[in-house]
Design brief:
The chain is of the alpha/beta class and about 230 residues long. It has a single domain (about 5-140, about 175-230), classed as Spore Coat Polysaccharide Biosynthesis Protein SpsA, Chain A, CATH 3.90.550.10. About 30% of the residues lie in helices and about 20% in strands. It has six helices and ten strands, in the order βββαβααβαββββαβα. Strands 4-1-5-9-6-10 form a six-stranded mixed beta sheet, with helices on both faces. Strands 2-3 form a two-stranded antiparallel ribbon. The longest helix is centred in the middle third of the chain and has 16 residues, at about 80-95. The two termini are about 30 Å apart.
Length: about 230
């Protein structure tokens, strides 16, 4: 498997300004993804940082990151989807090295609590064959679909299946999972079709404590606490 790692780290962020440069667990978020890439360099032939921001590029390079290009502004706006930016990185590397990429591993800085063993497991799932992508997920309890409601004519109604009265959330069935954003591994043709996962997706389940995604200031504080107490920073 010829896997290219891509660290997407655009400069703009409205919810958490300069998010990819915020310090969590003793280092900027983008640096944690660079460290992950270094830890799996035997599995990934190259990892590039895709950013439009000069300061992010500087911090990434100082941390040993490979920043061989600046992302075009058209691929870096608030509403710009991820896949075209990843495709841009793939096309650059293929032109630079004269060889075709087979798979793309996305290492988002907003999910800093991932381990080498997580990447190993995702790659192993892809090597087993018959899938076009592998996505990391986390089991959900407090946001299980059975808890979702809608308001209709002033009444609270179930969104889908009725919630069991008096039941424990641990007993909700079937178990529900959501993407945690930590790892995406996709074939080249999936990315070039405009997505980060295809039709044949294998799940890799991660524990809740390694599934914190950074969207708010509270997320930053939680991730910092978990990384410092867990020794993953």
């Amino acid at each position: 498997m010829r896997i290219l790692g891509v660290i997407p780290a655009r400069g703009g962020s409205k919810g958490v300004p300069a998010k990819n440069l915020r310090v969590v667990g003793g280092a900027p978020l983008v640096v944690h993804s660079i460290r992950t890439a270094e830890a799996v360099s035997d599995l990934v032939f190259r990892t590039v940082v895709s950013t439009d921001d000069p300061e992010t590029a500087r911090v990434a390079r100082e941390a040993g990151g490979d920043v061989p290009f600046m992302r075009p502004a058209a691929l870096a706006g608030d509403r710009a989807p991820m896949a075209p930016a990843v495709r841009h990185a793939v096309e650059f590397v293929e032109a630079d090295e004269g060889r075709r990429v087979e798979w793309v591993l996305l290492l988002q800085p907003t999910n800093p609590i991932r381990l080498r063993e997580d990447v190993e497991a995702v790659v192993e799932l892809a090597q087993e064959g018959e899938c076009d992508s592998v996505v990391s997920v986390v089991r959900v309890h407090a946001t299980h679909p059975v808890l979702m409601k809608r308001i209709e004519d002033g009444w609270l109604r179930p969104w889908g299946d009725p919630e069991p009265k008096g039941g424990r959330r641990q007993d909700y069935a079937p178990p529900a999972y959501m993407r945690n954003g930590a790892l995406y591994l996709a074939r080249r043709d999936v990315v070039f079709a405009g997505a980060m996962w295809g039709d044949r997706v294998r799940p890799y389940e991660m524990p809740e404590e390694r599934s914190v995604g950074i969207d708010t200031e509270l997320d930053l504080r939680l991730a910092d606490l978990l990384m410092r107490e867990g020794g993953t920073g």
